[in-house]
Amino acid sequence: MENVEAMWARSVEIVREQISEAVWNVYISHIVPVDIQGDSLTLAVPNGVIRERIVERFIPLLTESVAAETDEEYQIHVIVDDSVAQLVDEEVVAPQPAPTSAPKPTPRASNATQGSAVKLDPRFTFDTFVRAGSNNIAVAVAQSVAETPGRELNPFYLYGASGLGKTHLLHAIGNYVVEHYRMHKVLYVTTETFLNDYVDSIRQSKTMTFKRHYRECDVLLIDDIQFMENKEGLQEELFHTYNDLQSKGKQIVFTSDQHPKSLEDLEERLVSRLLSGMVVQIDPPDLETRLAILKTKCEYERKVVPDDVLYFIATNVQSNVRELEGALTRVTAFSQLDQSPISMELAQHILADVTAGNQPRVVTPERIIEVVAEAYGFATEDLVGQRRVRPLVTARHVAMYLTRTLTEYSYPAIGRVFGGRDHTTCINAYDKIAGQMSERRQIYDQVTKLEQELRRSA
User: Fold this and answer.
1) Is residue 51 in some structural domain?
2) 389 shares its domain with 436
3) Per the count of CB atoms within 10 A, which of 25, 102, 141, 344 is most buried?
4) Predicted TM-score (pTM) of this structure
């Protein structure tokens, strides 16, 4: 037994170097070696919760660490032994979530252009993502990647239609790693940011700075990789960046709206790299999931909405999460402005344009810009131009909000439509209009009227 304990003590130190202090304290520190018989190593833990998480997430890491110490590969078995609980403080036997009140470290990321780094959105975590049958596999894989970055499921390629939560999961991975792996460098970029950095590095003769920036991170998260199609130079750089990170055991995660094989204008050797890891599709939410999303949003925003109204919205808005949340925003904002209770009659009245015929609608960004420009008395060129007088800025923000709500365009794609603006500008515009709709009746009426007109003309 002494040999088993000594071997485990050395092996577990290898494990400790590769995980966060939170994971160590909650799970790994409670493992007690029991016995070795042949090629079988038995470990004991104090309860079933810890055993389940270790079996699901950490067996490969434990196996590899023991093999590194002993030069032998053991089959690890984990059992529950109540007596193990006496070896640890009663307070930590039942694992608790890592504290969230402490300040989270800022991701160590600075682009080659110094200042264009994309920050992780703290709102997008695994806790705020609604998990259901349509996305269960995607969430499980994302959590596994976040808990043991670079060890398995690398690269991770997540694809699906716009508005289903791909970007949310990408940020969730990054936020988890930042919180639990304090020494890891996490870099989140959109394909647009990656392209801009690449072009700037060439223009400023700083290609080595660009290469170091993207190849010295521990976790690289790239959103909307489909926009790399037909960009040969950018694909070449990503190919070499991928190979460099992969050889160092660093984690790479991509999102796209299509399966790698459907990206016809992506180089074959790059497609083969994307296919070499875990490829997962995220599906549109079913009715139960849509209801759960609406309830979660109400809880997050501390709004009380009757169940029959939520069911009405979930039944009639089926295309994507953005439009689902947009419909809820319209109902709650009107109720707040009008100081009237939220009811089925109110929802049916406000969302009449959504439920009419319940047929698929095709609204283009170009049509949105045209309708908004006419309503505010500007030329379409003004909305995509650089002028920043106040009425024009409001019209531009409204157009961006409607484009995000009524189309499947991502924020980077919206930025390109509106004169090549950065995607963060589009995010801020959406958030600003969504907030003003609950505070200013004029904005609410303008946006609602424009949305109804666009739906009718589609």
Assistant:
1) yes
2) yes
3) 141
4) 0.54
